[in-house]
Every structure is written in structure tokens, then in C-alpha cells.
Amino acid sequence: xxxxxxxxxxxxxxxxxxxxxxxxxxxxxxxxxxxxxxxxxxxxxxxxxxxxxxxxxxxxxxxxxxxxxxxxxxxxxxxxxxxxxxxxxxxxxxxxxxxxxxxxxxxxxxxxxxxxxxxxxxxxxxxxxxxxxxxxxxxxxxxxxxxxxxxxxxxxxxxxxxxxxxxxxxxxxxx
Length: 175
Description:
The protein is mainly α.
């Protein structure tokens, strides 16, 4: 099922990082401990130099991408599709604006770092990191850089959003 001798070690490590990271995240009262705990632990392991390189390959990678697709697709219900139909014009406009903003940011990133524009765009585009990484892998792009930038974005957003929301509520006199 795996094509690299480090694949089995990587699978074991990722399972351990998930379990230990979630427990540590809860103990530290992190916002979204199931996300931030494993991400923080992974960052610590990488900085310590004790992390194995793990990239799913072959059938394992295919299975991971199928699971990502199922995870997204199975969230749709009839009610959510009806709601999206009513909101479609507004959603399409907002999506277009966000895509243009990401393209502008990607262009700046590409100019400053010298990375290809498509890599910069995938690195800065919002959305599910799973879908972005799958797109990057399918397009033969630099998955390591793209997933690193996406992970940093996710980490910062999940870490800061609760504080920003509390600040906005206090400013409006709601709490």
C-alpha cells in the first residue's frame, strides 16, 4: 500500500501526533484543540529536526484524495443546495472578488519570492487545505511550499479568530 520505506513510519507518526496534539491542545485550552494541538506539535517536531518526511504515495494517496472528496461532498443536503441556489448571485460575486484578491496577493508573493504564480496562488487561496493540496498534487506543483503556507494561514486564522470575535462583540457592547 505504501511505496516508500518511510511511509509506515510516517503513518504511525501522524497518528501519534494527532492523538498527543489533540490532548495537549485540550489541556492548554487552545481554540480548536483538534486542529491547533497537532499543528503546534508538528511545528515543534519539525523545528527539533525529529520529524520524518511523510507524503502519501500510490494507492494511499489516492485513498486520501477520495476521502477528502467524500468528506466535502457528503456535507451537502437538499436544504443546503436550495439555500445555495437562492444565494448563488451573491456567492458568485463574493467568490469572484476573493479570487481576484488572492490572485493579486499571489502575484505579489510570486514577484517577491520568485516562486511560480500558480504555486503562489494555490498557497494563498482560501478554502479547505485538503482540496488545495489535492489540486496542487494533481497539477504537479510544489506541494510542500503550498501546504506550508496554507498551514500557517490556517494556524493563524484558527488562533486569532476567537480573540477577534470577542473584541468585536465587546466593541459593539454585546458582552
